[in-house]
Write a structure and sequence with these properties.
alpha/beta; 50% helix; 377 residues
Length: 377
């Protein structure tokens, strides 16, 4: 009885996941490099920060070095209740007249966390194009110029690539590959016309698009989602297109997590926003993907206690998963990153299954800590 129910289910989940991966691969092949230009609209770069004393001046130097006309953009650093000397250090170091620092009042959307800082910055900005990044990021000098070049009159949101800078140890290399996989998957999904994943460390959108979907108002209580939830709303509720900026010169770099605990809480926070996606059919797709991973665990248990047939099915599923994911990572790395990212691929694949299972469960039901704040899902 168990065979007649579970075996077809496992096979169907494998077929669906394979179809999903092939769609990402096809989407990557549809992406095109942007034609570099200076846009007519004024650009506002919003950079929220909280306790970034050890990183914020490197970020400032990369922002001040942008190869973009200063009269065409402004930069607004938004202090989100820092308890270190980030604010003072930043104010003393600024040399450019188009860069300023503001602080979010304590009473301004107090439960919205990072979104409140971004929202406050947008309210104080004047640009038609809003660009967001993080204060622990480093940018190449052509970053802003190429990112905003992706906009035309029909574009409402542009997602850009982000990477972790590995420091030589295996933990940072694994994080770099895993994070690259997320960015590559997001790029492929945009390429296939189904935008799902992006990162606020490198994103841009039209003010009109932001305002037409009421900004973050529908999900202010969600601790994350100032990127993906907004992108999906602009895609679903407006006539604007979503683009991915395919250029290695636009890659924004940031540091990986320093500990497994920090990594766990970050991924837990990211996973927590999945059930708040507006598109319920998209939620169903994500549940099916999660069930595929959970099914691999069940197949392992059944192969030990029920039948060796499940070990064969498990092996075939993992081999297909490994081949397709390698092709995607290889293609994406050629387009955006360094092929050296793939060095820990086999180890990453071994850890991938339990990681997805744990992150999915903990992100759905658990609370977490971010920037010294204890947050609820």
């Amino acid at each position: 009885m168990i065979d007649t129910i579970l075996t077809p289910l496992f096979i169907l989940l494998l077929v669906y996941y394979s179809y999903f991966l092939l769609g990402i691969f096809r989407g990557l092949k549809k992406l095109r490099h942007p034609q570099v230009k200076t846009v007519d609209e004024f650009v506002s770069v919003i950079i929220p920060f909280r306790n970034e004393s050890d990183k914020i001046l490197k970020n400032l130097r990369s922002i001040e070095a942008q190869d973009y006309p200063k009269e065409k953009f402004e930069v607004i650093y938004v202090n989100d209740s820092s308890s270190d000397d980030s604010f003072e250090k930043l104010v003393r170091a600024i040399k450019s007249s188009n860069i300023k620092v503001i602080s979010v009042p304590n009473e301004f959307s107090p439960n919205a966390h990072k979104k409140r800082a971004v929202r406050f910055g947008i309210e104080k900005s004047v640009g038609e194009i809003i660009v967001t990044t993080d204060a622990d990021c480093i940018h190449g000098k052509e970053w802003l110029k190429i990112l905003v070049s992706c906009f035309d009159n029909n574009t409402g949101f542009v997602s850009g690539p982000v990477e972790f800078k590995e420091n030589g140890n295996i933990f940072s290399k694994l994080q770099k590959l895993e994070f690259a996989g997320l960015i590559i998957a997001g790029a492929g999904l945009i390429g296939m016309g189904e935008p799902v994943i992006c990162n606020a460390a490198n994103a841009a959108y039209r003010r009109k698009g932001f305002e037409s979907v009421n900004g973050f108002n529908d999900h202010l209580a969600v601790s994350s989602g100032d990127d993906e939830l907004l992108m999906q709303k602009i895609w679903k509720d407006t006539g604007y297109k979503i683009k991915f900026c395919l250029s290695k010169k636009v890659v924004v770099s940031t540091v990986p997590n320093s500990s497994i605990k920090e990594f766990y809480y970050q991924r837990k926070r990211w996973a927590s926003k999945g059930l708040f996606y507006q598109d319920k059919f998209l939620i169903l797709k994500l549940i099916l993907i999660y069930l595929f991973y959970f099914g691999l665990l069940i197949q392992l248990i059944l192969s030990v206690f029920v039948s060796r047939f499940y070990f064969i099915l498990l092996t075939e599923s993992i081999v297909i998963k490994l081949i397709l994911e390698y092709l995607i990572l290889k293609k994406g790395s050629e387009l955006l990153f360094d092929k050296k990212n793939l060095e820990p691929f086999l180890l990453a694949e071994l850890l991938h299954i339990p990681y997805i299972i744990i992150a999915g469960i903990s992100g759905t039901f658990g609370n977490f800590i971010w920037k010294e704040r204890r947050l609820k899902r």
